[in-house]
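seq as requested:
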Amino acid sequence: MTNLGRVVVTVFAALVLVTVTAVAVHFLKKPKPPPPAIVETPVGDLGGDQAGPAAAGEETADDAGPQRADDQPEPPTDDQEPAGPGEALADEGLALFNKGRLVEAQKQLSRALRAGVAGPKGRAVRDALSRCADALQLAPRRHPADTYARSYEVVPGDTLTAIGQKFLVPYQLIMRVNRLESTRIIAGQTLKAIQGPIHLEIVKSRYELRAWLDEVCLGAYPVGLGIENSTPEGTFVVEQKIVNPPYQPQHKPRSEFRDAGAPDNPLGSRWIDIGNHYGIHGTIEPSSIGGPVSEGCIRMHNRDVEEVYDFVVPGVSKVEIRP
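struct tokens:
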């Protein structure tokens, strides 16, 4: 073989070797991993907040406690409640209220409350009723269209208690309406009086007490009721009223008793007796209002029970407790 032939063979062999090596490297090298799959998280799962990982000490999904086994939604909040059968009446009453026609609005809103109205509209109705009462019955000036208010001229020998008996309301209500600082009155003085009586209604399913003057509601107040449905139902009559009542529970040791006005007296600032050891009273535990908490009595915020105390007359005012 000539020298030229040897060179050609050598070059060809080198090219073959390079080609084989390149092919081997291509098929033997470790492949790159595929890119991670992109999974979109529904916005609803994030509650509208595009939050990052939980911060140190913050609850994660695994630490948030047990989940509902039946995967059912939580009971609806007050905002989610349907307005109720009184919705149309509520709309009419609120429209009258917004126009300043308070006497008509008060009657229509009271009808809506009796028919049943809940949720945000129910709260609007209750707020409007309270404001109507403040502007009509409970204001010192008599509204000419309010049929529940009377002008009364004091005669010699009159007392606020005697005037209250004429109108079937407590003397405290006459003082409140007329902004009197004492019980002293003089002959010839003109007072505004409300023609009572005022009765109470307690709706257990709503944990609510309502004060009624004939067909209009003067106010709706949240209450606490008895555990295990122990608050009795029926119609009762107010038997007596006590300011700063002593606490003398039945079937409990003497150590449980509390003096009148004691800071740890669970009856709060007022007691309205409806018989058989049941009563409407204040509380030193305001957070307990709105649930089944008592041994059968009706609990109220102290400011609320003080207002209701001034509405009712023993032996006259009725208390209806219904489911």
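Residues 20-77 have pLDDT under 50 and may be disordered.
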